[in-house]
Amino acid sequence: MLLKRRNQTDKEILNYISDHMDKDIERLLNADSLPMGGRDVPDFDKFGVYESLAQRMSRQERPRIGTICKWACAIALVLLNIGYLVYQHVDVSKPVYKEVCALRGERLVVLLEDGTKVWLNADSKLVYPEKFAKKKREVMLVGEAYFEVKKDTEKPFMVQADEMNIRVTGTRFNVSVYPTDSAVTTTLDEGGIVISYPYAEKMGSYHMTPGQTAVYEKGRNICKVMNNAYYKEASDWKNNKLVFRNAPMDEVLTTLSRQFDVSFDVRSEEISKFTYNFTCKLNNLSGIFEMMSAITPIKFNEISENVYAVKEK
Predict the structure, then answer these.
(1) pTM (2 decimals)?
(2) How does pLDDT run across 78-108, given as a tens digit for each residue?
(3) Domain 240-312: top CATH class
(4) For the domain with range 97-231, which CATH number is right: 2.60.120.1440, 3.40.190.10, 3.40.50.20, 3.40.50.2000?
């Protein structure tokens, strides 16, 4: 009778331990912290526990309730140790991302939660977390933007621009990374940035200084960094101004298409070879047409709503 009661008690204890271990394992699988009861987890010698368990198993002794409890306590300590580390050191919460788009013909200003200000050019998209991670600030850009990054040396700011990664702590710079363009262009106004791209470990990263422009050729893993006497003009678009220097016609028309939400039908291959040098305001499309017609022998005819044919005079 006594043996039966003892076996029953052993079974109840094992069931109790199993039930609580299952709950703890389920919490860990769900990336939840374990209840610590306000206590710290002591240092735990995992190798020592393993060695002790191995020795006991090799003896092939009949497991007494004391041994079972010791094993259960050891396993529970492992679970508590893991749970504590997960709770203290791992950010298991999934970030909530926001997406801001500037449509063709419009420009936007975005203020991020750290105080960083981003000017978003036409036909561009910025993806960023609602709340930045503990050790870094990451955003993704498609299109063109000007960044005025809030300085934080302990928490670098990173921009993912196609294949290029731009790392800063506090600075001002312009990035153009339109999907249809063959290159990613980064121009630094103030501070310092480090740009990297695929195979950068072999080829090295570039540390840019103010007044420099980096041109990364997509798909070729080639990046050229050069001093740019006109570097301020790269971000003139945010001041409602465009500057073209030796720009081929297709580049000019592509820019106008984004800024004014219009399309062009070039009727001659010869006029496609023209290049332009001029400055214009971003509020008068007809005035831009007149300026281009004065520089080269072309004319613009509206053939449907927001669609223009480009012909020779």
Answers:
(1) 0.70
(2) 555 555 554 454 455 678 999 999 999 999 9
(3) alpha beta
(4) 2.60.120.1440
